[in-house]
Every structure is written in C-alpha cells, then in structure tokens.
Amino acid sequence: MNTGLGRIELGHLVGAGDGPPRSGPAVGVWFKRGLLGLLAAVVVGGAVWVLMPPSEGNVVQTEPATPAVAVADPAAGASPIAMLAAEPAGLDRLKISSQTWRRGGLGSKALVTFTVRNDNDYAVKDVEIVCAFARRDGSHLTDRGRVLADTVGMKSRKTFARVPVGFVNINADQAKCSLVTARRA
C-alpha cells in the first residue's frame, strides 16, 4: 500500500512562485546553508551565554533596610512631622524551633517547612530568613533568602509549610535556616 508521498520533491515547495520548480543540487545547497546558519547561531548564542557574568538575582541582602524618614518643610509653615516605618523587632526572643526541607520543581527548587516561635510581647511581621545549603560532607554550596509577609502573633508560634526559597544546587543535601530581620507588626 503506497500513497506515493515519497515522490514529493523539496524543490517544488521551495521555488513555488519563482518560475520553474527547482530540484537537485540547488535545493541541497540551500538546505545545507540554512542548517549551517542555524548551527552557527546556536554556537554563538551559547558562547555569549557562557561568557556572561553571573546573575545578581538571588543575592541575599546583608544589611537590614533602614526606615524611611519624611519630614515636612518648616519654612512652608507646617510643623515637622516624622513618619517612620515600623521598628525592627529584636531577634533575641524570636527563633526557628523546627525546620525541614525538600526539593520541588523537578528537583531544582528548595521548599522549606519551619516554625517561627515569637516570645516577644508584640507581634512581628516581614520575617526574613536565609537558608544555607551544603553538600553531604558539610561543605557550603549556596545561600538563599526569603521575606515572609505573614504576621506571627505575640507569645505564639507559626508554621510556614513548603516555602519556596529559590533554586539550589543539585548536590545540596543539607539546609540550615536562620532569621535575619523582622519588624514589629
């Protein structure tokens, strides 16, 4: 049972409106040039990608943000008004009481489950954590951070389940998370 599709020539499709249909070596040369151009574009694009500097997208901020201060102009006749953002909370009575991690996103992302315990007399919000990932032998691989917008009430604890903290190295076997900053709610 033969449909006869084996006799369709590529040259008839390529030169459809350019006069007589082309076939034979001219089509082969055109096809080879196109394939060679595609291969060259892939090689050049790959070389540019390899030579680019690493991304700064997942770098953890080392200094906590300072509160913004807006003061009215006394020359305009208004009294000075200071508008401060919420005060930073003390981390001495705030801690992570338990933590585990697992892989998600086809094995490339870290999902951390942990419990924040707040022994302060006030609620806290915008809790920032940083997780350090290491190999099985304990050698450090990478750090990933995340700010959690939820509020942890005073004298209470809150569990955050499967929080994505970022991409991790395939060799990561251990994770240790710690608190960086928090603000009074």
Automatic annotation (TrEMBL):
Protein name (database record): Uncharacterized protein
Organism: Bradyrhizobium commune
